[in-house]
Amino acid sequence: MQTQTTPVFTAEDRAYLRFNGPLGKIENLFNLIAATSILVLMLLAVVQVIGRNVFNQPVPGFIDITEQAMAVFAFLGVAYCQRVGGHIRMELLLGTFKGRALWIAEFLGVLIILAVVTVLIYGSYLHFDRSWTLGDSTIDVGLPTWPSKLIIPVALSVLWLRLLLQLYGYTRLIFNPEASTLDLPHILDAAEHAQAEIEEAFLEEDEKKGEAV
């Protein structure tokens, strides 16, 4: 019968975790807001259908509200998705790599994403600034568009921080392929998945002890 051993975390691991905890809480909050917006929008759509067909009274500005809400559920959850590896990954290609070569490939992939996200943050902020300056609004009920446009650079900035943290995490693994993968997205078999869950449980326990001290 195998016994579970307590993982040993290095100084580099703890440096990663020190930033991962607060950033993860922000990602969880943003993801919760995104999920809630979808639920609210679905309920609003039900009210719209019933109001239009039964009472001949649709929800004023329903299309405008839907357009603005799209930025909320499309972007606020993107950093959370990156953290848990829920995005589409080229695992057929990555599966051919092992050890240091795998972590180099992961590092390069995240580096490319970071460069693209940096450009998108700049461009989306310019769109927000233009909307704020001109007082842009929707056509139907005149909702200001700047809040939805501000959400995009804010959400992408959180993603940028997550990518930067993952670059640090993969750099650790490039120099030491035997180091703990922590919560970094990577290809897992059944045994590795179980070990990752064990490490995550110990990480949470370790963080609670640190907060208590």
Structure report:
The protein is an all-alpha fold and 213 residues long. It has one domain (11-212). The chain is built from 7 helices and no strands. The chain has helices at residues 11-53, 62-75, 78-84, 91-94, 100-134, 146-175, 190-212. Helix 1 packs antiparallel against helix 2 and helix 1 crosses helix 3. The longest helix has 43 residues, at 11-53. The chain is elongated and about 65 Å long. The two termini are 35 Å apart.
Strand content: under 5%
Helix content range: over 70%
Average pLDDT metric: 83
Globular, elongated, flat, extended or rod-shaped: what is the shape? elongated
> Topology as H/E string?
HHHHHHH
Gap between N and C termini: 35 Å
Residue stretches low in confidence (pLDDT < 50, at least 5 long) are 1-6
Summing up helix and strand content along with how strands pair, one would put the structural category as mainly alpha
Biggest sheet overview: none
- How many helices? The count is 7
Radius of gyration: 22 Å
State the domain count: 1
Number of strands: 0
Task: Spell out the key features of this protein.
213 residues, mainly alpha, elongated
Write the layout of secondary structure elements.
Layout: H1 11-53, H2 62-75, H3 78-84, H4 91-94, H5 100-134, H6 146-175, H7 190-212
Helix pairs in contact: 1-2, 1-3, 1-6, 2-6, 3-6, 5-6
Summarize the structure.
With 213 residues, the protein is mainly alpha-helical. The protein is 73% helix and 0% strand. Residues 1-6 have low confidence and may be disordered.
